[in-house]
Structure formats: C-alpha cells, structure tokens
C-alpha cells in the first residue's frame, strides 16, 4: 500500500460541489462518489474531519435587502442540510459518521464538543462540522480553519470546482496563470480568492497548510492524501 502523507485531515467541500452540474440543490450521485472516495482514505487509516458549505442551497450575501445576520443564519442551516446528506451517503457505503453542529439541534446532530470530536476521529469515524462557527459574519472557510486547528488536523484539503489557485478567473480569462505554491502572505497581499482573509490568517497563525485542488475527479482526494503533485499548496 502506498504511504500516506497525512494522518488527520480537514476536508472542506463547497456546497456547489454537492450540486453537480446543476449548480443548485443536491446531486446524490455526486455525494455518493465523494463518499466512496472518503471511504477509501478512511480505509487507509486516515482520520477525516469535514466542513461543507451551503452555497448550493443558500448564499447569505445574495439575500438582497435582507438583514445580514438573518441571512447568515439561514446559510448555517443550509450547511446542516448538506452535512446530513453527506452523512447519509457515507453511511450507505459503510463509513461511520457523526455530524456536529455549532447551533444546537440535538434531535438531528450532536453539539460541537472538541474532545468528543477528537474521540470520534480516533475511533475511525468521519466527523462533519455543520452550522459554521455558530456566529454570523463568518464563512465556512473560517469554520474549516477553526475546526482544523481545534482537532489538530495536519492539512486542509480545499476541494473546489477549479483545479488550483489562479491569478485571475480561469473561466473568464484564457491566459490565467495557475500557481503551484503560494505563501499565506501572498494570498493576503494579492487578494487571491482561496479562502477569505480571516480563514487564511487563522491557517497562518496555526501553521496549517492548505491544498487547493479540483473535485472534478473525486480520486483527487486520495491523490492529495498520498502527496501527489496536485493543485496549489499554500503554506508558510
């Protein structure tokens, strides 16, 4: 068996990743494919925490005229829907999974308790962190950075619809340049859209590298674990 580069990782999935080609709602075939790839790395002995965005259901910034706090709470609830969908897909392929939420909803998920989350990971369970940080004005990128620091993850695997970090939008500009490596400060100074500045600063302060890669091929998750050349690595 190939040697794994990491033991405990934080997987950050955008909500759009679960929407598939439609870009909205849930594509359960996509969720199942992602679940199968997560199962493969769990079977390799990797401890996996996950954060899923909610942009396929609700993106707070699009709530025109709506109070920002209310819109953000709606976004947090959207992440809970995605977390439960991913949990179901994982359990269908035999992966023991727990959802922990920053907003208490004990009928459907556990509250976030750091020590309990750590124990689940040690027992080989995937832990999905939902409802953001529980506070408005913070993105799920910040949630991923915060939870990664709390569970002592070795890296954040940032799975996106693009295959890395570019100097400009590759969907709009054919001459967009892809970066293989970047530092946290370069991300902040150049305003590159990897994670928001709060999340990037958290990763920098806690020395958590970020690997940005495309989820067009779900097998990229396994390649990332094996340390293959992939996407863009952000580190100090």
CATH class identity: Alpha Beta
In this structure, how is the largest beta sheet organized? 9 strands, mixed
- What coarse outline follows from CA principal-axis ratios? globular
Q: Beta-sheet strand percentage?
A: 15-25%
Number-wise, the strands total 11
Q: Look at the structure and give the mean pLDDT.
A: 92
How far is the N terminus from the C terminus?
A: 30 Å
Query: pLDDT below 50 for ≥5 consecutive residues: which ranges?
Result: none
CATH topology: Carbamate kinase
Work out the radius of gyration. Answer: 17 Å
Please identify which CATH superfamily we are dealing with: Acetylglutamate kinase-like
Percentage of helical residues?
A: 25-40%
* Total count of domains: 1
CATH architecture: 3-Layer(aba) Sandwich
Order of helices and strands: EHHEHEEHEHEEEEHHEHE
SS-derived structural category: alpha/beta
Pathway: Pyrimidine metabolism; CTP biosynthesis via de novo pathway; UDP from UMP (UMPK route): step 1/1
Organism: Clostridium vincentii
Keywords: Allosteric enzyme, ATP-binding, Cytoplasm, Kinase, Nucleotide-binding, Pyrimidine biosynthesis, Transferase
EC number: 2.7.4.22
Task: Considering the chains and any ligands shown, give keywords for the structure.
11 strands; 38% helix; 236 residues; pyrimidine biosynthesis; alpha/beta; single chain; UMP kinase activity; two-stranded antiparallel ribbon; Carbamate kinase; Uridylate kinase; 8 helices; 9-stranded mixed beta sheet
């Amino acid at each position: 068996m190939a040697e794994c580069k990491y033991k405990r990782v934080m997987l950050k999935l955008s909500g759009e990743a679960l929407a598939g080609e439609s870009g909205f709602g849930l594509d359960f075939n996509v969720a199942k494919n992602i679940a199968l790839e997560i199962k493969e790395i769990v079977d390799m002995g990797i401890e996996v925490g996950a954060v899923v965005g909610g942009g396929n259901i609700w993106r707070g910034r699009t709530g025109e005229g709506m109070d920002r706090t209310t819109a953000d709470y709606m976004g947090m609830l959207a992440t809970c829907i995605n977390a439960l969908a991913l949990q179901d897909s994982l359990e269908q392929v035999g992966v023991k999974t727990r959802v922990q939420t920053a907003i208490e909803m004990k009928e459907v998920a556990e509250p976030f308790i750091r020590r309990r989350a750590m124990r689940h990971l040690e027992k080989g369970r995937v832990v999905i962190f939902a409802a953001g940080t529980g506070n408005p004005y913070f993105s799920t990128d910040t949630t991923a950075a915060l939870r990664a620091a709390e569970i002592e993850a070795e890296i954040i695997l940032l799975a996106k619809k693009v295959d890395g970090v570019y100097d400009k939008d590759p969907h709009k500009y054919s001459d967009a340049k892809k970066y293989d490596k970047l530092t946290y400060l370069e991300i902040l100074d150049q305003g590159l859209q990897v994670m928001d500045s709060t999340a990037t600063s958290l990763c920098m302060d806690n020395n958590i590298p970020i690997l940005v890669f495309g989820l067009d091929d779900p097998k990229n998750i396994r390649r990332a674990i094996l340390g293959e050349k992939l996407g863009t690595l952000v580190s100090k």
